[in-house]
Amino acid sequence: MRTNCRSFCWPKLLRTAIIASCLILLVLFFRHHRALPVTVEVTPEALDWLNEFVLSGLHETSSQPAQSVTMCPEALITHPLVILTLYKPDRPIQRYLFRKGFIEQDQSRKIRTILHEAGPDTSLRIDVQASPLHRIWFKNKYYWFWVYEPGKTGVFWDNGGQEGYLSPGQPIEQGIGPNKTWSHYSPHWTDIRPILYRFITHSYVYLPGASALVALERGEPPPPELNQANIRAAIIEAADYLVRQTAPSGKFVYEYDPIDQSNSSHYNALRHAGTTFALFQVYGLTSDSKYLEAGDRALNYLDRLTTIKDGFRFIIENNYAKLGGAALAVLAMVERETHVRDGRDLPKIHAFARFIERSQRDDGDFIRFDPYNPTRKAELEKSIYYPGEATFALTRLAGLTGEQHWLDAALKGARALSRRWSFLGIDWFVPFDAWLLYALSELFEQTRQPWLYDYASTIARRMVLYQFGPGANRNPDFCGGAFDPVFPQSTPTGARAEGLGAFCTMLSHTGHLSDFYRTALMNSGRFQLRQAFRPDNSYYLPCPEKARGGFRKSIVEPQLRIDYTQHNISSLLYLLEWTNYEQEPDDLTITH
Known about the structure:
By secondary structure, the protein is α+β, with helices and mostly antiparallel strands. The protein is 47% helix and 14% strand. A hairpin with a 7-residue loop joins strand 7 (195-206) and strand 8. The chain is globular and about 80 Å long.
């Protein structure tokens, strides 16, 4: 029996070891093959030459550009491809490719002529090849997704003698998201089984009025410094964007594509209410009446989306009265009442709150979807965030009116949510619920109950754990973004930063703010400031002013939606509070 056991186990063990080794080698191969290192560094002398070459060409005043071109430094001719892209508002993007770049005087003169004709009022991007061409061996969308980095990777293809290029910034400028890049461009590469190569570039941008080229990272200039002046400016510009997107009726332009300048026909009443909440938050910061007026128009439109029945107010979508809709409506109106104090909306607030109270079960949890159509059944599950929104709405209402009744309901809801994903004393799932962190922070301020801190810290730690940190990824522009398998996006990052800001407030109530969470909040803020459209990063848009201040989906996806901007406004308000926090970091102790 012992011999048979050995004869059976050793081949199985060897086979397992071989499979594991092959998998490790495969992972190492792909990791190595995905990396595309820069092999040509642009020296300071070469950058000075390039800067002088571009600016003198753009600002040439004679009718003919200068014919004499100084010798190009060696660092700019080792890999010769140069891609020149010109941007003018309301005009098609112009792109020029020079295979020999600055190597030959004739090529340099052609580039100089294009710059002269463009003039100093043109925005310009110049990409200089920084790596050799690397063969793309597999023509498969999954492999493509692995080796291609939007905004960084250029592609050259030879399709039976027909050659072409995909410049690093082209998919972003055309509004093609990372998941759609392969399907959008691959028809060019499938006719005669073309040979594909990838490369990376050093990229620079000139903006009208600038005195020098600015180096780009994934098509982006360096983000603004994280300080109170820049954070406040970002908040105000974002709020101004929302004001511009608010029609006289109070309806928002829900989704705007700044590439083709189209508006989506979709709408979402819950995000409408959340955006109205952000407008009143900015009014509380600035006391500027334009935000109050825009918010009031939005509340008027919210009335049109509201159903009143049996003394309850609720918002119906898809034949369901959604818990989150009532909660966000309460939050928007309570925020207004906090700053205006005219009592105008109190009857509406209480009618919405009574609907939330009716949706709360005996165990404290909530019915997320109450059927307006009697043929449907009430649904408890589906939405992760509606109960947190409801708990926060009840908490804010209790803080506004001082009624113990609403505070008890909020505590009951928070207790149920803290146990919702727990089994046998283990938290099997912890949602990234910023709305619940809002509620826990304010409930802790009012009651000082230790279990509120315990569950809040569990959520906050998970948020930090799923955040790109410095050095955690070879893409420095990922730092501070919420982890995403595709690309970090602005809305998850902004929403989680709201939660981290609320938790920092909770910590400050004890007299100690942990630097662990404050640092994570600062990292998030730096990432968020990258996402807002500013004059220096919207040069490729057909109409930059329409998008200014709005927060896009991600650096490589320029689409705008009202909730992208709303969440980032709310979180930056917390960041404004904690940026210059003076207290020395210390460990938090809670007495149970």
